[in-house]
Amino acid sequence: MPVRELTLSSQPGASIRYRIGTGAWTTYAEPVPLAEGTSTVELQATASDGALGLAQVVTAKVDATRPVAAASIDQDRKVTITAEDVLSGVSSIEYALGDGDWQVVDGPIALDQEAHVVTYRATDRAGNLSEVGELKVPGGPLDSVATAEVSNEGKDGWHGAGAKVTLTASDDGDAVRYRVDEGEWIDYDGPFALDEGLTLLEFQTVKGERLGVVGSAAVKVDATVPTVKASLGGDRQVTIVASDALSGIDASEYRIDGDEWLPYTAPFAVDGKAHTIEYRSTDVAGNVTDVKTLEVAAVPAIKPAPKATTCPRCQELRGSVGLSRPRTARGTSPA
Asked: How far apart are the C-alpha atoms of 176 and 75, rounded to whole Å?
């Protein structure tokens, strides 16, 4: 797979420092490999005279993983080809019949009664190409085929916590077997769970020594609840931050003092009264956090400055006091 790197450039004589996420600042010397996923990179240039430039923040998204393509067929010999990708998403799906040219998949493909080999592949938005798959279909009517259904469906092809796979044979008398990511074949005996992430599930009917067409499905599972936290900032602004490492955040909501739930789209202000703010988030797979609470205290009341007290008797006494000559002993005169 191609290596994804961060390449920086500046004016002659200037240097650049960078850091990824909350890591240490590092002087840039050569292209920097980036981990798969989304990374936040801070950059700052220093001119030849030592003057610091403005810090910049860029978001780098790396997808170095192939998408997974899958195909299945029904008893009417209609082929359905799908694909899934965890990070960048699927860009296109193609198929070819036998040695024919590649064509873009735009819906189910109807086959005639002849035997066919349907090859298929998918490309994600990062340019990664899936493995090429094959669906081998015999000629004539199909006695029985297996189908797969995955519970707890969310959005964008994701399935949430507790998702299970149910396999069904179109002929009730047929057994079904399956395998995961090209592992060992397992006899199906009831709904089963898949690991988190993107899985290639293959399945087929079994009737004595006769095996049916091998169908497949690409299944994405996110069994982890997202994280969410609210904080109170200046000017009594409430900010809600949610994150989800796999399927991503679909929506966050809040309500004030038990009122109706509102969609969170940006920080909001509360008045000076005391409030109880409840909030929650949902990821794309449909996993919902517990309701969390932020208690906001009332703004303390400002006490008025104490007023000067008045004493009518004190005023009367102060008004009656005057100057007098010092008293002397009888028969003497003041100096």
From this structure: 16
Q: Which CATH superfamily includes the segment(s) 227-296?
A: Immunoglobulins (2.60.40.10)
**Which of 114, 28, 79 shows the shortest CA–CA distance to 214?**
79
Domain ranges of the chain: 5-62, 68-221, 227-296
Q: For 224, which DSSP code?
A: S
Rounded to an integer, what distance in angstroms lies between the CA atom of residue 232 and that of residue 225? 24
Q: Which amino acid is at 305?
A: A
Do residues 222 and 160 make contact, with C-beta atoms less than 8 angstroms apart?
yes
Strand pairing partners for 222? none
> Given phi > 0 = left and psi -120 to 50 = alpha, else beta, which region is 137?
beta
Question: Mind listing the pLDDT tens digit for each residue in 49-98?
Answer: 888 888 888 888 889 999 999 999 999 999 999 999 999 999 999 999 99
pTM listed for this prediction: 0.79
Distance between CA 245 and CA 87 in Å, rounded? 10
Which amino acid is residue 4, in one-letter code?
R
Which tokens go with 37?
A: 């996923």
Residue type present at position 246: L
Asked whether the beta carbons of 222 and 215 are under 8 A apart, the reply is no
The token pair that represents 168 in the structure block: 């069904």
